[in-house]
Amino acid sequence: MDADKExxxxxxxxxxxxxxxxxxxxxxxxxxxxxxxxxxxxxEPINLDIMGKIDTGEIPLINYSEYDSANENMDDFxxxxxxxxxxxxxxxxxxxxxxxxxxxxxIYHLDDSNTSYESYTDFFTNTIDYSFxxxxxxxxxxxxxxxxxxERLNANCKSIVVQYNCHLYNRMNNTDIVRSASMTxxxxxxxxxxxxxxxxxxxxxxxxxxxxxxxxxxxxxxxxQSPQIIRxxxxxxxxxxxxxxxxxxxxxxxxxxxNRMGSNYMIKLFQLNSDNTRTxxxxxxxxxxxxxxxxxxxxxISIIPSFDNINTNLIxxxxxFYISGDKAT
Length: 329
Description:
The chain is mainly beta. 6% of the residues lie in helices and 35% in strands. Strands 1, 2, 3 and 6 form a 4-stranded antiparallel β-sheet that branches. Strands 5-4-7-8 form a 4-stranded antiparallel β-sheet. Strands 9, 10, 11 and 14 form a 4-stranded mixed β-sheet that branches. The longest helix is centred in the N-terminal third of the chain and has 9 residues, at 48-56. It is elongated and about 140 Å long. The relative contact order is 0.11.
């Protein structure tokens, strides 16, 4: 009689058909990754149709006999994630975890270490919620990542290692189905934004080089320095305000071009004498002068002359104004 034999029997489950796909899209220079469902030649991304069947239990992934009901705590679930009993949010979501490791080979050693390479890793996580999605949302369940190789002193990137972990997670009962995939990109140079080939550099000798000359600087004491004068420039507008019979022109409108930055403006007023010659208009006396013009916001801007400015001379009919940049714009 043959001896007893032991063997394991693995139960069939739809969760065995959950997988992932990870590949490099050469056309777009990017990494594509997403969860899949199916077996054999019938494998496709977990799209809206498949996720809908998973969420309603048409494609059962777990044995609900361990729970009171497949919709246990549905009231709390809807309150937390939105919707109502006519439009229930998806219980299952996808959580993608991606780690991208860039491996560099050292060009030469700057110290006594024997390490011939160095590396650094970037980590990315994104959550895909199928709730309330429609066909108009497109292939939102497919993720894409474009590697970026950072320049390293004394090192060239030789390969990129990508590790992909996908969680198909049930928010109702915390069931977590995990699938993983990895890949190595051996020719990562296409992910370098700017790469200069320095393998064939020709060294030239400069024959007309200008030698560096030392400057002789004579220090001057603070007391002997002459005061510095900063020039101020003015936009000057000349206006004739009276005619030969001393009739004053009435208030009118005039366009003044303003600079965007704070600037000085000078208004010079003249009168015409009997010979039709301009003479300065005397502004002295107990009068108040203002420049008034409407702003872009339909407000009125009023600016008084700069009486502390030497260019403001009332007897000679000269008024100086400073208009700041905020009022000019």
